[in-house]
């Protein structure tokens, strides 16, 4: 069940992903970035959080390719890859990984540089997560 109280909080993030932009929250009081969307800063506990555009570049800390045994609702999407990316802004996000030209993920390695690569607005409406591609 979705928490109706979260929709206003996450709407700017989802709308930005639909436009091909990646946002992170920034605290107006202490100036630190954080992610995922929160009502209060996790560092100074102030409520004045806004949104800023992220650079979209980062380092892949971990990833997994799901080929079998996908969770309910993802069965038709196998194989797919998820990764934890530490953005240049210092925050970590979970996102999908674009497959290589051959349809696999052999170019991906932990500590590889990745960049945000937008998905279609239709895909973001279905699954509102950022997508990343390995940098050459």
UniProtKB/TrEMBL annotation:
Domain ChsH2 C-terminal OB-fold: 51-115
Gene3D superfamilies: 6.10.30.10
Domain ChsH2 rubredoxin-like zinc ribbon: 14-47
InterPro entries the record matches: ChsH2_C, ChsH2_Znr, NA-bd_OB-fold, Thioester_dehydratase-like
Chain segments annotated as coiled-coil in the UniProt record: none
Record PANTHER family: BLR3430 PROTEIN
Protein name (Swiss-Prot/TrEMBL): Zn-ribbon domain-containing OB-fold protein
Organism this protein belongs to: Nonomuraea purpurea
Taxonomy of the source species: Bacteria, Bacillati, Actinomycetota, Actinomycetes, Streptosporangiales
